Amino acid sequence: MKLSLAGALALGVVVSFGTAAYADPPGDPKAVKSEDGKYLDAQGDPTYNVKPDGTVDWYTFSGYRRYHSECHVCHGPNGAGSTYAPALKDSVKRFNYAEFAGIVIGGRPNGTSVMPSFADNKNASCYLNDLYVYLRALSTGAIPAGRPEKKEEKPKAFTEAETACMNAK
After folding, report:
1. Signal peptide position in this chain (predicted)?
2. Among 11, 18, 64, 67, which is least packed by CB within 10 angstroms?
3. Nearest to 87 by CA among 95, 98, 104, 75
């Protein structure tokens, strides 16, 4: 299997932080730091930022878009699960970012079904943070199901990272 740049980076995160057997659950999702429109929790993991008027950060909105283009077919709309695959909005309550990234990039067996690897799918691998923060926001009730009505402007850093990842060989 040829591993994309995003896949290699995500796999490096998993190797650096451990595997599912040793992963700590995610911490408090409260944003304590912001870098170029990305929000991080106290552990340095990606998280969401929802303003009192319901405006979501760009990365949460992007996660909504990516989730509904790549993940909802198996995992159901809004991370609610299906008869085929588990509710990801519940799973991210147990998985920290490194574990989540490892599963998306590496795939894994799940009873009688299999979560395929998305390492070569740039629409998922280039947006791991976005997918995680969207599901994390759903899991805590910070956003309702459905398309977020209001979003922050797209940060320049997002466009630069997206271009670099999508054009990586």
Report:
1. 1-23
2. 18
3. 75
